Amino acid sequence: MDFQNGIVSLLSALAALSFPVLCQQVDSSSIKFIDLGHQCRSSPSAIVYTEISRGGKIIPIGVRKCIKPSECNLTLSMIRHDGYNRVVTKCCEEDQDCTLTRSEFLQRFRSFQPNGLVCPSCSSDRSTRCCTSDTVQCTGDETMCAYRSKRRTGSFAYSTSERGCATQTFCDRGNYLIHYRSSTIIESNMCTKAQETINVQQLPPMCLP
Predict the structure, then answer these.
(1) Of 33, 95, 203, 205, which shows the fewest CB atoms inside 10 Å?
(2) 206, 209, 173, 129: which is closest to 18 by C-alpha?
(3) pLDDT digits (tens, 9 = 90+) for 79-88
(4) What is the 3-state secondary structure (H, E, C) of the chain?
(5) How many other CB atoms are there within 10 angstroms of residue 196's CB atom?
(6) What CA–CA distance (Å, rounded) separates 58 from 128?
(7) With a threshold of 0.85, does the pTM exceed it?
(8) Distances from the Cα of 174 to the Cαs of 146, 177, 191, in angstroms?
(9) Measured distance CA(101)–CA(128) in Å, rounded
(10) 143, exposed or middle or buried, with CB in 10 Å at 0-12, 13-18, 19+?
(11) Tens digits of per-residue pLDDT, 65-112?
């Protein structure tokens, strides 16, 4: 998957949390965040760091933004056979020098080791229909099998979808609809409990929706 398609998937990961998307370089020890310069007033000020892995490439994003109280201090994860999405949020006082190190980001995830559960895995850059006979081993706190689709209508229309293992916090985001200028963005999420085994050989390619 090329860099542009990776960014499309990244938009899907952040839009449900109402975060803008800005690229920022990171190093191995600390994460540098772009401060959007808004006064949050009654809403919490937070930093959010997202890592998207696609085909061996890691796309990092760091921003500081006003968010909803329910979005404070979240740790989200979704993994597929060809990559992962990981998001960490950290709320701060308005005048606080809020930072997040690479080590703190990694520590928010209990483990990256397989936990014995397995889910169907696929991704599509052109359709909300995601068919697969592949599976992926769940890791850490990923106890759910997730299907996520995203569709944009109007200018720059596109559709994407993916399936894989996810944390409960990832599934709890639910569905959303955003109107932006002449476009509408619709994201749908479906989750089921992950199981220890899937006998893929006895099943036809599994498609959603």
Answers:
(1) 95
(2) 173
(3) 998 899 999 9
(4) CCHHHHHHHHHHHHHCCCCCCCECCECCCEECCEECCCCCCCCCEEEEEEEEEECCEEEEEEEEEECCHHHCCCEEEEEECCEEEEEEEEEECCCCCCCCEHHHHHHCCCCCCEEEEEEECEEECCCCCEEECCEEEEECCEEEEEEEEEEEECCCCEEEEEEEEEEHHHHCCCCEEEEECCEEEEEEEEEEECECCCCHHHCCCEEEC
(5) 9
(6) 24
(7) no
(8) 11, 11, 10
(9) 35
(10) middle
(11) 788 888 888 999 999 988 999 999 988 876 666 778 888 888 898 889
Query: What distance separates the 2 farthest-apart alpha carbons in the chain?
Result: 58
Q: State how far the Cα of 61 lies from the Cα of 99, in Å rounded to an integer.
A: 14
pLDDT band, very low/low/confident/very high, at 176 (cuts 50, 70, 90):
confident
Q: What is the pLDDT of residues 120-152, one digit of tens each?
A: 998 888 888 888 778 999 999 999 999 988 888
* Cα atoms in the 13 Å half-sphere on the side-chain side of 183: 12
**Selection from 8, 1, 4 nearest residue 148 by Cα:** 8
**Residue 42 CB coordination number (10 Å):** 6
d(CA 38, CA 65): 7
